[in-house]
Amino acid sequence: MRATSFLVLTLFVAVVVTTDAADKNQPAVNGDRIQQHITALSKFGTNPEGGVSRVAFSEADIAGRKYVAGLMQEAGLTLRTDAAGNIIGRREGSNAKLPAIMIGSHIDSVPGGGNYDGDVGSLGAIEVAQTLKEQGVRLKHPLEVVIFADEEGGTVGSFAMIGRLQPAALDLMTHSGKTIRDGIRAIGGDPDNIRQAQRMPAELKAYVELHIEQGAILDESDIDIGVVEGIVGIRWWDVTIEGVPNHAGTTPMNRRRDAMLSAAEFTLAVNRIATSMPGRQVATVGRIRAEPGAPNVIPGKVVLSLEVRDLDAAKMTTVYDAIHAEADKIAQARQTPFTFTQLKVSSEPAPTDERLQRIIAKAASALKLSTKVMPSGAGHDAQEIAHIAPTGMIFVPSVGGISHAPKEFTSQQDMANGANVLLQTVLAIDRGELR
Ligand code: HGY
Ligand code: MN
Ligand code: MN
User: Fold this and answer.
1) Which of 222, 288, 334, 424 has its CA 20 to 30 A from that of 181?
2) Is 381 close to ligand 1, i.e. is its CB under 6 Å away?
3) Residue 241 in 3-state DSSP?
4) Residue 155 CA: which ligand 1 atom is closest?
5) How many domains does the chain have?
6) What tens digit of pLDDT does each residue of 224-233 get?
7) pTM for the full predicted model
8) What is the pLDDT of residues 257-289, one digit of tens each?
9) How far apart are CA 137 and CA 141, in angstroms?
10) CATH classification at residue 95
11) Which one of 234, 310, 384 would you pick to mutate in the ligand 1 pocket, going by the greatest count of ligand atoms within 8 A of its CB?
């Protein structure tokens, strides 16, 4: 071997060995364990289609929360349940004066949901705490892992944490059959003192949430990690349409004031309006109830849900105004008045912290993972916490972009990648990179 070749080879070996050693020195999560926890959590509220119906405050939710609380304790966290029912696990840092780095997500699901929405971020955050404990890493900042209460009912737990859950919202009925007030009580919260759940900006250094993308962008472009730049706002209304109930056999077609017919026209109009404007806004009628609800009675009343989402609050107002104007026309033409009641759990759009975007992207690159900066079309607790702390979000791919459905799927490797990026992001914040 010529001297130069020998030198090149030696350098090459040295670089490989050094890089390898550096990677080994970095704490890394246990992907098998995340997968085991995902599988175990999926048993709470499991449904025959392979997903879960673990709606907030249901028996399944209560049992699932107990399971994750056990994991949090094993991870060395000291637990408390706040007044809103959020489970908060804390690990003190070496400097008692520093604010906490908060990570977490939710474990409640939509009815007929999947096994990854919220669960990946919750179990990924617990895995970060477990990894720090096992690998003997002491942070300077306290670490808090939060499992937020009732995310799917309108980011209820995180709303309370920022002090914006209005008392009227406590009376809303949830999928569990309990009001939010009774639900919070059932999970160990204290709805009569909901204000006590509020956290102050000085208490929090940052909040970072890992989540599945719930869309197809990462999967279709074969990208490992999404760096979220902003989260859409979500506004919900109950729309009530008043008609006149009457006999479905004896009332001629030209003498009807059929609330269902107006609801059908309205539903088509919502879709047409959201589709016809330039931009990424979406609008949905997702639930409908006709009264009295019999085949042989013309519906006298229909109550349906309206949801509008966009990254721009002004755009959401424009879409809503157009929908309302169309409803007025339908009401006039069919003599069926419409009433819109906005629910007290609507979320405003939220940009994420640009410094955290950079930290997340850098952490992913150091792990040799590809990244893409992208918006979130789904709502998250992160958009509420963004009002009181610098907030970042890490997305991992959802196969086929399917979510809020039993076929929702994210691979073990992608979950581990996301949790490792979360871990490295926490370490970077702790080192002082969030300046
Ligand atoms: O509805 C949402 O976007 C969220 O998954 N809660
Ligand atoms: Mn969801
Ligand atoms: Mn979610």
Assistant:
1) 288
2) no
3) strand
4) 6
5) 2
6) 999 999 999 9
7) 0.90
8) 999 999 999 999 999 999 999 999 999 999 999
9) 12
10) 3.40.630.10
11) 234
